[in-house]
Amino acid sequence: MNKLRINQKMNHSLNMIKSESTLAALRRGDLAGTRRLDLRGCNLERLPEEVFALADTLEELDLGDNRLSTLPDTLPRLHRLRVIFGSGNPFTELPEVLGACGQLSMIGFRGCQIDTISGAALPPRLRWLILTDNRISRLPDALAERPDMEKLMLAGNRLEALPDLSASPRLALLRLAANHFSTAPGWLVRHPALAWLALSGNPFVHRLFHRLSPSGITTLSPCQIKEDQLIGEGASGLIHRAWLNENPPLPARPVALKRFKAAMTSDGLPDCEQAACLAAAGHASIVAAEARVADAQGRTEALVLPLLGPEFRPLAGPPSLASCSRDVYADGLTMPVDKLWIILQSIASAAAHLHRVGLMHGDLYAHNILWNGEDRALLSDFGAASFLPEAAGLRAGLERLEVRAFGLLVEELLQRADDPADARCAQLAALREDCLQPEVARRPAFGEISARLGPASAR
């Protein structure tokens, strides 16, 4: 871990040098014609006037990790600006001048000190709003008047209610984890477009946290596992290759060890992800925890996960700035229909298992599906997972909300079938329509979907 901290400090220093170099180039006038400008970590207290020399080309501006608390009234002079990041600055309100930027569609102000948002701060073409880890207790009703809104990330605030967004036609992804909701907004389970939802860490689901978390999970002490090199890093933690000592019923073997970061992620809290990853165990198509590593006080330090071979790769890349809520697949990707069927059957069965044990994945995307290219697809990453509330109607509604995410996956894979004339494509197209129908309550549950994709159907 000492080496890791040294590497982090080196990376921070390199980023500072890079930012200072960019700022110097901006002031010399060397960046004429640029479309993207990264001024993170430049110790700025105000927006440099030289930025406005880029008004005819600048589309993306990153001002993260500075000392800004306001933005100038002249910001709309950047008339081509589509994306702005102000994360990690001491803003206490979302700058109203943003609302006057006619082309602005993506706003990211994560980890500031924002407690006030005016409707005037929301530009007319707003599509993607990131306000994770702030102090917001109320959102303006004007949020419901932004028809392009597709991705809304609000984890780690103080919200108890939301404006009614049931008429927002494109809202697909919503992050509400770690807020103060005592119940889910009623319109959530009626929204025709919503597919990806994170609710963990709110009172109405967090009270289920300890009761539904598995009590019989194997617990290891740090001396029972030997940590090796870093093999991966995600938003919520670091993954190392490790060696598990003999500890019945767990045999000695190489494993993956995930250590969680303390920080709030865009999806929620690390302890909620830990609990979900433990509770998800018991299905061959789920990458769930096999054990936890706890300190002397019983606090979870890390989770033991299966060590997957290099043949397992994400089925797609995560959404881009342009695609917003949809995954990005490799150009020209095609797959045999029998392989698509294996993937969909595996994931439907995995999702049915999760909902049966009281969990919603919340991030059912191709980029969270690991595929070995032949016969195994694994659902991974429980960062957005939530325990399901006990009320049967709400529980059923949340399951069918997630069914829409599965329907979009079917749609994406059908577009990549190598033989669209295969009769099974017609079966998948019918399933897609059932999963995507706008009346949420009429969508099939995952158990029914899994049965439709069973071995008998595939032949």
UniProtKB/TrEMBL annotation:
Residues in Protein kinase domain copies: 225-459
UniProt: ATP binding residues: 258
Lineage top rank: taxon: Bacteria
Pfam families in alphabetical order: LRR_8 (PF13855), PK_Tyr_Ser-Thr (PF07714)
Gene Ontology cellular-component annotations: cytoplasm
Transmembrane segments: none
An annotated Gene Ontology molecular function: ATP binding
Listed SUPFAM superfamilies: L domain-like, Protein kinase-like (PK-like)
InterPro entries documented for this protein: Kinase-like_dom_sf, Leu-rich_rpt, Leu-rich_rpt_typical-subtyp, LRR_dom_sf, LRR_domain-containing, Prot_kinase_dom, Protein_kinase_ATP_BS, Ser-Thr/Tyr_kinase_cat_dom
Annotated keywords: ATP-binding, Kinase, Leucine-rich repeat, Nucleotide-binding, Repeat, Serine/threonine-protein kinase, Transferase
Listed name of the protein: Serine/threonine protein kinase
